[in-house]
């Protein structure tokens, strides 16, 4: 994936030309309720009465594993490419589960390509062994901190989010242009696998590139009932209800690309493709479009608009 050095969830209200920040809340009623509250596990009965997190402004992640696959069948890096972290797609691209090593296209830099390691629970309870990984995780609800405090309902201790994605694009001398793909975000319980399910999904529609600033734009296509709730200036509104009512939640990924075109020491040739891998650190936000009589108003409900504030170079 291209180096995304800033992913800011654009939690804005766009109505009559004005914009203001929005807040997000997550309701765990349909994800086990207080069964994930840290108090339930560590000190039975020591949890708050509701199943709702405190309000927060953005989703955060660190160490998200990113892979870009460039078609070089015509002898050029320019042309079609895709970004993915889906194991079956990585295998088809020539990266086996055990990984593959080689020398970068600069002729000297050693590179090892591998599949990202996701955060899996071994042992069935808090304190069980967590698999080395976290490379598919959303792992922060900013500014709720630490993860087991601030009314996070156990986030980061008993549950988190796992992300899978596939983005399509075209690379030219000016940088990448994204034109399709999707992202799925899953609720990931660390204590009860029966609670694991798709939390929300989004389709990538287009991108914009301004100097080193890359914006990715998504339409939210699915959200679990009564889970994602966004402040509209008056009250928290359920994203699933917005979809059911004809609203269009939209994700915005506002990024700094570094570099927009991968360098020779980052790329490994496999067959007729070149592949780059990196870790990304960042945060995520979004907007929701709601139809109104005679017009469509943009109401910022703080939905997951992905932003990446990568602190490592790709």
Observed structural traits:
314 residues, mainly beta, 14-stranded antiparallel beta sheet, three-stranded antiparallel beta sheet, disordered C terminus
How would you sum up this structure, described in words?
Helix content is 5%, strand content 44%. It has one domain. The N terminus and C terminus are likely disordered. The longest helix is centred in the first third of the chain and has 6 residues. By secondary structure, the chain is mainly beta. The protein is globular, with a radius of gyration of 20 Å. The strands form 4 sheets. Strands 2, 3, 8, 9, 10, 11, 12, 13, 16, 17, 18, 19, 20 and 21 form a 14-stranded antiparallel β-sheet that branches. It has a 3-stranded antiparallel β-sheet with strand order 1-14-15. Strands 4-5 form a two-stranded antiparallel sheet.
Order of helices and strands: EHEEHEEEEEEEEEEEEHEEEEEE
How many strands appear in the DSSP assignment? 21
Shape: globular
Report the portion of residues in β strands.
35-45%
Report the end-to-end length measured between terminal Cα atoms. Answer: 8 Å
Q: Helix coverage percent of residues?
A: under 10%
> In terms of per-residue confidence, which ranges show pLDDT below 50 for 5 or more consecutive residues?
1-21, 121-132, 290-314
Structural class: mainly beta
Largest sheet: 14 strands, antiparallel
**Radius of gyration using CA atoms only:** 20 Å
In round numbers, the mean pLDDT is 76
Number of helices: 3
Q: What is the domain tally?
A: 1
């Amino acid at each position: 994936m291209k180096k995304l050095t800033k992913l800011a969830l654009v939690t804005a209200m766009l109505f009559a030309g004005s914009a203001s920040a929005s807040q997000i809340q997550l309701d765990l009623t349909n994800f086990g309720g207080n069964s994930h509250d840290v108090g339930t596990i560590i000190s039975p009965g020591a949890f708050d009465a509701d199943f709702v997190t405190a309000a927060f402004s953005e989703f955060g992640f660190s160490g998200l594993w990113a892979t870009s696959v460039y078609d070089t069948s015509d002898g050029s890096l320019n042309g079609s490419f895709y970004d993915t972290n889906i194991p079956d797609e990585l295998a088809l691209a020539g990266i086996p589960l055990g990984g593959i090593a080689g020398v970068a296209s600069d002729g000297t830099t050693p590179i090892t390509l591998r599949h990202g390691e996701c955060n899996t629970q071994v042992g069935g309870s808090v304190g069980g062994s967590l698999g080395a990984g976290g490379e598919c995780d959303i792992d922060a609800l900013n500014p709720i901190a630490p993860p087991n405090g601030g009314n996070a309902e156990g986030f980061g201790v008993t549950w988190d989010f796992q992300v899978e994605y596939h983005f399509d694009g075209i690379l030219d001398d000016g940088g990448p242009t994204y034109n399709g793909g999707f992202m799925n975000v899953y609720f990931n319980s660390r204590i009860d696998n029966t609670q694991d399910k798709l939390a929300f999904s989004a389709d990538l529609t287009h991108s914009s590139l301004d100097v080193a600033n890359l914006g990715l734009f998504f339409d939210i296509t699915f959200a679990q009932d009564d889970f994602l709730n966004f402040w509209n200036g008056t009250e928290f509104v359920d994203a699933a209800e917005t979809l059911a009512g004809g609203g269009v939640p939209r994700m915005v990924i506002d990024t700094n690309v570094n570099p927009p075109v991968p360098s020779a020491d980052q790329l490994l040739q496999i067959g007729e493709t070149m592949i780059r891998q990196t870790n990304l650190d960042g945060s995520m936000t979004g907007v929701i479009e709601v139809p109104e009589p005679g017009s469509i108003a943009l109401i910022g409900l703080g939905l997951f608009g992905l932003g990446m504030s990568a602190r490592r170079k790709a």
